[in-house]
Amino acid sequence: MIYINSCILTLMLISPEFFGIYLKKKKLLDTNMICILILLSSLLLRLIYISYTGIGTRQHDVHTFFKNNGGHAEYILYLFDNHKLPDFDPRDIWQFYHPPLHHIICALWLTVVDLIGLDYTTTGINSLQVLTVIYSFLFSVFAYKTLKRFDLSDKMLPVCTALASFHPTLILLSGSINNDMLSAMFGMMSIYYAVKWSQDRKWSAIVLTAFSVGLGMMSKLTVGLLAPAIAALFLTVFIKNIKEWKKSILQFVVFGIICIPLGMAWPVRSFVKFGVPFNYVPLMDKNVGQYIDRSAFSRFIDYRPYQLASPFTQWSWSGHPYNEFNPIIALLKNACFDEGTFFDKSITLQSFCTVLFFVNIIVSVFAAAGLIIMLWKNKNIKLELKLIVGIVTAVIFGNYLMFCVNYPFVCTENMRYCVPLIFVNALSIGKYSEFADEHSGRKFLSRSSDIMKKCSLLFCTLTAFVYTVMSFYEVWITTL
């Protein structure tokens, strides 16, 4: 009886698959419907995840509600209690330096919960994950819509949609009540509407691009890292349509009028009132246990096999033999399991995590190859689309590596700083397969494409398995 909730949730997760079988028998199952069912399944997986993951589990800089110990929790409660932005230097309290949009939405949520007569201190706080589930799901929806804009084949669109829906990071962030998932959602929306504008040049598309970037920066300033890629797309389309330069210039002006005030309001306010630098990031003490006491050079060239002995991020303060130091290996581990260790009381279940980790490595290698092929070999993709994908990848990944060098701590090596790459990887996998199909005479490409598709589906299946079984595991360990 103690597993009844987990069983019900598991049946819910597989219900879209049965519905798909029914539609197939009725000859009503097309590519778009398959993708919709994939998205629905991923939403159910997110709901399963938050059913056993509380607001104090696998969080980032949230801290504890009602303890006045800083973090995103205190930020949310400050806005809820005071109905105004902080009137003090935001550097005085941990995490208050962040733009406030996510925290405002959470405070409004608590206000509504309180107004309808529910206890905001319990029901309200615990239900904040509903918001992050919505953000995570919408990220996948807009990733799917963007993949369609790149004219993926009917064969690969469902596979790529699955990769952009069942990625473990999106499941983990659906339960994380900091501002990461909201900013990632707006970032994905920014890419989608920018691509849409490049193809139809409608006013609605450029206005929504402006709002997406601006509101994204009101959630987290790193969304501004997408600006170079969007600017390159704008410039390319402008040159291609130079005869309509007046319309383009006017659209760019409107974009700036909307985006710049929204995106820069918080950093300008913080700088003018309190002297907070625009690129402010709080420093951590080198004496903390997670400090990585290695040179940047040694961190990037050391790929000794012992680092693959465990699929989980290593922390010396948790009894692990070393602090995870290689940013690439750390990112691959973190993408699957964040900073935690799963199934530590079951070697059998933990073996599935190991397989998921190594499958992720294989998929990532194929994605990297697919990205190179797409940017350099694929002549069917327009230049502006290549630019936005290439520059997004270079800036986001480059920023991550620089962040790891400038702030050498284990917590810096986190996939939550690279969420847009989930979409890039999914797209690259699709384009690799299409390139292989176009060169079907090359046996290596054909065989590698088959392996890639199987590994991609295995990656999504293992993700669903691991994060569903966790619900049973959490119940089991509480009964020991």
Describe the structure.
- The protein is an all-alpha fold and 480 residues long.
- It has a domain at 183-278.
- Helices cover 67% and strands 0% of the residues.
- It has helices spanning 4-25, 31-52, 71-82, 101-115, 120-126, 129-149, 157-163, 168-173, 180-200, 203-219, 227-240, 245-274, 296-301, 327-337, 347-376, 383-406, 420-438, 443-479.
- Helix 9 packs parallel to helix 11.
- It is globular.
- The protein starts with a helix and ends with a helix.
How would you concisely characterize the structure shown here?
Helices cover 67% and strands 0% of the residues.
Topology diagram in text:
Blueprint: H1 4-25, H2 31-52, H3 71-82, H4 101-115, H5 120-126, H6 129-149, H7 157-163, H8 168-173, H9 180-200, H10 203-219, H11 227-240, H12 245-274, H13 296-301, H14 327-337, H15 347-376, H16 383-406, H17 420-438, H18 443-479
Which terms would index this structure?
480 residues; mainly alpha; 67% helix
